[in-house]
Design a protein that fits this description.
The protein is α/β, with parallel strands linked by helices. It has 9 helices and 16 strands. Bound molecules: flavin mononucleotide (FMN).
């Protein structure tokens, strides 16, 4: 069977700058540890790639517990970027992760622009890291995080600094907690980003009415899961129309049709987050659904679907 053979199976491979993925399905940062934690539940080689939990230079303990509260069709979390630090990741996790034959995208964090650049430099020097996702959008830390992702000048400056520090594809992760996401997508593109991830969690607050205290120790948290999907699809659609670089859609994906919504809205790839906690083996089902869709719609490859939304209807 050749690629031109009309009976050839449709291709799920996608390109994000210099990054080639065997399929457009990525495990989202913070919902699969460093990948190895879910390796006994899902064959990692069947994923396009995994995005690691956020990594700073040093190890961090994260927030006090409780750090998770369930909400209708969603999850509110304030983990606070607990992690082992980039050096421990490179020394003790990466060698074992490489054996799994999937793209490894490091989620880069920092309290300062210099820290972002240094984490990016150390990750880039390590064999087996395929791209960098720049976390400028975490709502659950007191310093850095969302502050970088809600100011277009700071967004530009941190992305430009990481760009200078690394030759790997640079993928800033946008915050949805802004009025106009296109301003931030453009700032990333102008600073040399290869793509943008769209989006991180929405700032939320859940209250225990008996104690009249927040349910989370940190106070506010980030909302994820199916509850945010229409918001994230809308932002993906807006960002895709504003920039030429690829978009990675994220937010509440729980089935093939959910992934298809993001792709049709303009995403080139997608990430699955909260669903990893309840259904980490969802990927095979989504992949089969994507293949079935391409066959039914007579499309030869998944990239042909990106941005085909007919709007207005
Ligand atoms: C428990 C938890 C931890 C997360 N940790 C990170 C993180 O370390 N870095 C990051 O960029 N995003 C983090 N996120 C955000 C997710 O990667 C994703 O953007 C968000 O959850 C929306 O996708 P979903 O609705 O599929 O979960 C985290 C989300 C959850 C639920």
């Amino acid at each position: 069977m050749t690629p031109d053979d009309p009976a050839a199976a449709p291709s799920l491979g996608v390109r994000i700058g210099a990054l080639t993925l065997k399929n457009p399905l990525l495990a989202a940062s913070g919902t699969c540890g460093y990948g190895l934690e879910i390796a006994h539940l899902v064959d990692l080689s069947t994923l396009g790639g995994i995005v690691t939990k956020g990594l700073y230079l040093a190890a961090r303990d994260g927030c006090e517990v409780p750090r998770i509260a369930e909400t209708p069709a969603g999850l509110l979390n304030a983990i606070g970027l607990q992690g082992i630090g980039i050096r421990a990741f490179v020394e003790s996790v990466l060698p074992r992760l490489q054996a799994h034959n999937t793209a490894v995208i490091v989620n880069v964090c920092g309290e300062t622009i210099e820290e972002y650049a240094e984490v990016a430099r150390l990750a880039s020097q390590a064999p087996g890291v395929h791209a960098l996702e720049i976390n400028i959008s975490c709502p659950n830390v007191k310093t850095g995080g969302i502050a970088f992702g809600t100011d277009p000048v700071m967004t530009h400056d941190v992305v430009a600094a990481v760009r200078r520090a690394s030759r790997l594809p640079v993928i800033p992760k946008l915050s949805p907690n802004v009025t106009d996401i296109t301003v931030f997508a453009r700032a990333c593109e102008e600073a040399g980003a290869d793509a943008v991830s769209c989006v991180n969690t929405f700032l939320g607050l859940a209250i225990d009415v008996e104690s009249r205290k927040p349910k989370l120790a940190f106070g506010t948290g980030g909302l994820s899961g199916p509850a945010i999907r229409p918001l994230a699809v809308r932002m993906t659609w807006q960002a895709a129309r504003a920039v030429k670089i690829p978009i990675i859609g994220i937010g509440g994906i729980a089935a093939a049709n959910d992934a298809l919504e993001f792709l049709i809205a303009g995403a080139t790839a997608v990430q699955v987050g909260t669903l990893n906690f309840s259904r980490p083996n969802i990927y095979a089902e989504i992949e089969a659904g994507l293949r079935d869709y391409l066959t039914r719609h007579d499309l030869k490859n998944i990239q042909a679907l990106s941005g085909t939304l007919q709007y207005p209807r």
